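Supplementary material to the annual report.
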Amino acid sequence: MVLFEGRPLPRPKLCGGGLTPKAQRLVPREALDVVERRVDRVEIRTPHLGSFRIEVPGATIAMVERRRFDHALVAAAARAGADVRDATPVTDIVERPDGVTVRTATGRYEADCVVIADGEPSRLSRAVGLGSPANRLALALEIDVPPSPLAAPDTSVLSFGLRGGYGWYFPKNDHASLGVGSYRHSQHRRLRNDLVHLGRDLGLEVDARRVRGHWIPMGLRVGSVASERIVSAGDAAATADALFGEGIAYALLSGVVAAQAISDWSVGAMPSLRGYDGRLRRALGPPLGRLGLIAAATEVSTSAALLAVRLSGAVRERAVDAIGGWSAPFDIDRHCEVACACDLHEDEPASASIANAHQRADRRHCAGCTMACAA
Ligand SMILES: Cc1cc2nc3c(=O)[nH]c(=O)nc-3n(C[C@H](O)[C@H](O)[C@H](O)COP(=O)(O)OP(=O)(O)OC[C@H]3O[C@@H](n4cnc5c(N)ncnc54)[C@H](O)[C@@H]3O)c2cc1C
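Predicted assembly:
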């Protein structure tokens, strides 16, 4: 397998770098070595209810710097056998009935199939006819700032004053990610100002000229993300959720679904990769749909939604479940359908390692090795 990355590695990626438990469970263990801080306290700020803190031990967020985290993921892929070519943008993909040709500035490669994961805007998906619009498109602005003198180091801040979005402060080791985002076009003009104000509320002077922005495509694409021999995954397939703008866990899961589809197709259990589109929608559609509905309800009354989070243990439990991913499609057992023999369980045959991992208190390893196999 050849993995093409357009930029030299390690490369920066504009992102808050918040990894939910469901994302943590889907990555190989070494990628978690770069976690800078684990945060299970959230301060929620609202215009009408003031601010309040909640503790969410079932939804501990691991804070990473994407440059280092993504590099660790690529290293894990290389360790699993991928031939990594960085600084090598793919310039063209041509699908034929008997294979796919991939072109870069320096070479031409023949493949049985291709996974497009070039982020947003996915130029490669568009070029092969798989780049229909996302159901929702958010704009998010972000800047690295020094740690806030007014926020506890183990607490992230979520600020709700925008329609269709929120602001965040995610503490890392020696700095923090400060950002705002919304899927409402009407809010996009005010995002920069909101970011500066959020910084000020946290005792930070934000240099507005250093702020950068990028789109987050959400809720899947309206058209198919698969052809006979090509599938798209991650932002290229618009897999982020509309409530939090969380993209990493869903991108990883789409990679798992793609790997399973390719594996089934390669042994003749699936006639073409077109079936990936339905599988992806069945896996991600329900949770993304639920979070989209909650986003819409939150827009109708942000105060009511946040009051429910503050006062109702049951609502908080549901929120922790959505963030933690303790049920389908992020539950462990489903993904263990893919047999795995990674070196986390070196001495055991694949089936035994999966069974044992199920019995472990630390269930992360099992999904982690599923992902390593997918890579
Ligand atoms: C400001 C901001 C904050 C965010 N914060 C969070 C957060 O805290 N938590 C979270 O879960 N999600 C967050 N997200 C969403 C998350 O960043 C994305 O959903 C996620 O990175 C998608 O991963 P991906 O691999 O699909 O795409 P990307 O991470 O964008 O990776 C695509 C890769 O493809 C490469 N590429 C592009 N074109 C080519 C080509 N032609 N040839 C070869 N390589 C190419 C790019 O260089 C890049 O390395 C945030 C997004 C934004 C914009």
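The chain has eleven helices and 17 strands.
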